[in-house]
Hints:
Layout: E1 12-14, E2 20-22, H1 45-52, H2 61-69, E3 76-77, E4 83-84, H3 87-103, H4 107-118, H5 130-139, H6 145-152, H7 156-164, H8 180-192, H9 201-222, H10 227-256
Antiparallel strand pairs: 1-2, 3-4
Pfam family, one: MerR_1
Organism: Cellulomonas bogoriensis 69B4 = DSM 16987
InterPro entries: DNA-bd_dom_put_sf, MerR-type_HTH_dom, MerR_fam
Amino acid sequence: MTSAAGSQPGVARSDGYGIATEASAEHxxxxxxxxxxSRTPSMRISDVxxxxxxxxxxxxxxxxxxxxxxxxxxxxxxxxxxxxxxxADVERLRHVLRLQRDQYLPLKVIAEQLDALDHGDxxxxxxxxxxxxxxxxxxxxxxxxxxxxAHRNVPEAFVHELVxxxxxxxxxxxxxxxxxxxxxxxxSVLAEHGIDARHLRSFRAAADRQIDVVEQVVAPLxxxxxxxxxxxxACVAAELGELCGRLHTALIRSGxxxxx
Length: 260
């Protein structure tokens, strides 16, 4: 007897090999983003890696499994238990990896965006931050106190004050890191309100404590020698750094709300 589900679009069924498939690639309910892309699970994990590595050379099987554990993609399973991905799964993974790489978004935020897309909401595209950060990183070895001061239109003495107060920490040969310019920008605006380098020491100390917490969390991963573990450590560190920044901002806004 033919099952009623077999003739209904969007209803899961078996493809004869023990793999659950969608009866229609045009299924229009929640969980259907991206639309218009096949949902037939025809790709092995090696096929997925091949499809993604052109844009994401360091992606690994463990990375895909990690994203699955976080609920960002749900590959089908064969009767033998092997993962089988659809073209729609691959595009979903590509979207997640791009947001991580270009936006440094936490996985929770990415999951919320995917949920909105699944329900048909339109997400406003974000301006990529990766290009800016990479450009800053490339300039970092050449960023000196004088060059940062000139580029940010502040007196060189002002940058020296930030260094002497421990807010900026030059590396070997006096080079400042990729974020020194942003620190100088914010510090110069705060200085206009009478908040000088001495007051900023508490911010530096708070940041150091938060960095210590992040280091403790990723230490077990960094201690492993595998490339996958190192990649995951970098992703977790970046995500925790963003979350710490967001928490700090929220706490400051909460504490100053009654002053407005």
